[in-house]
Design brief:
The chain is mainly β. The protein is 2% helix and 38% strand. The N and C termini lie far apart (41 Å).
Length: 326
């Protein structure tokens, strides 16, 4: 997906906007106008936190763009777009052809520092659900996610791309969750297909840094760095990758990634960092695994008294450095 060479706005939105759609520079429309009235081909300049404050509602439209004529959202000028105090920062629900061009100036902030019980107000950075398709999120960043799923490809979503950006402090490794909210940093699940996470940085991942519950998806050129948490070691059996997709005809592809784990992990915890317990083929090519205090591949998992064996793990030109374990 090639970004537009020049983003010329046809609409203006701010967090405090009150004008009717499409608004204008200095008299912007509201997020609600954007969500309900945007149309294919609209290029929306989102005013930054400097002009109207932070957004407290996901600005993703409820209507779809079209192939060749997407709805595009981008930061206005040199301003910085900030989303706070929402369940999901960017929530794509059944829509298609919506592009968020963050340009490195779009941030989803869970505000951990403001909360005495250390819980974030953001449960998901980005979520694709209800067959959302052909959407793009590029160069957006996020920090402090309460620990459900940071980036969630869910419920039949397909052909979506998340590219670039940095996402930090997700799930139990963020040391700010409570109860049982020990989620995953990135998840592909519930029939999600043909989605791609590319060139992103994921740091302090959750219960699983990468949870592969559905095949026919890909992670390419990412840095996935996870660290042990002391919040509740009883349920903190975190992994870099847990691949449980179970369809033999649906491979999952991981290429050109850097995986690192182990900072602070107790030496007596034999937690495999790579767990493959489903039948979908997995292809791991030209990845680097480094600095794991306990590093192991686990190719079967006992679940409810049944052992599920893995089929077709393909390892091509991977490197393991500075790791301990089998």
């Amino acid at each position: 997906v090639v970004p537009p060479r020049e983003l010329v706005p046809t609409a203006f939105v701010s967090a405090s906007g009150t004008a009717a759609w499409p608004g204008s520079e200095g008299d912007e429309a509201s997020v609600e106008e954007l969500r309900t009235r945007a149309a294919p081909g609209d290029v929306v300049a989102m005013r930054g936190v400097e002009h109207g404050g932070a957004y407290t509602t996901s600005p993703v439209p409820e209507v779809s763009g079209e192939a060749g004529s997407p709805i595009v959202l981008f930061p206005h000028g040199e301003e910085v777009v900030v989303i706070q105090r929402v369940d999901t920062g960017l929530d794509f629900v059944g829509v298609s052809h919506v592009h968020v061009e963050g340009l490195g100036r779009w941030h989803i902030d869970g505000e951990r520092q403001a909360l005495p019980d250390r819980r974030s107000l953001v449960h998901h950075f980005i979520r694709f659900q209800e067959s959302a398709s052909w959407n793009v999120v590029r160069e957006v960043s996020g920090r402090f996610c309460t620990g459900w799923r940071g980036i969630d490809f869910d419920t039949g979503s397909h052909h979506n791309l998340v590219e670039g950006g940095a996402y930090e402090h997700i799930g139990n490794a963020a040391d700010h969750v409570k109860d049982d909210q020990n989620g995953d940093a990135v998840a592909f699940r519930n029939g999600a297909r043909w989605n791609v996470l590319r060139h992103a940085r994921i740091e302090n991942g959750g219960h699983n840094a990468l949870d592969v519950g559905s095949g026919l998806n890909a992670v390419i050129g990412c840095r996935i760095l996870s660290h042990w948490s002391d919040v509740d070691p009883a349920w903190n059996d975190y992994r870099l990758v847990e691949a449980e997709a179970d369809s033999p005809a649906e491979p999952f592809y991981i290429e050109g990634c850097v995986f690192s784990s182990g900072d602070g992990m107790p030496t007596d915890r034999d937690v495999p960092q790579l767990v493959f317990n489903g039948r979908s083929p997995k292809v791991l090519r030209q990845n680097l695994f480094w600095n794991a205090e306990y590093f192991a591949f686990q190719s079967q998992m006992r679940n409810q008294d049944k052992t599920r064996h893995v089929q077709d793990i393909v390892l091509l030109h991977n490197v393991v450095l500075g790791c301990e374990g089998p």
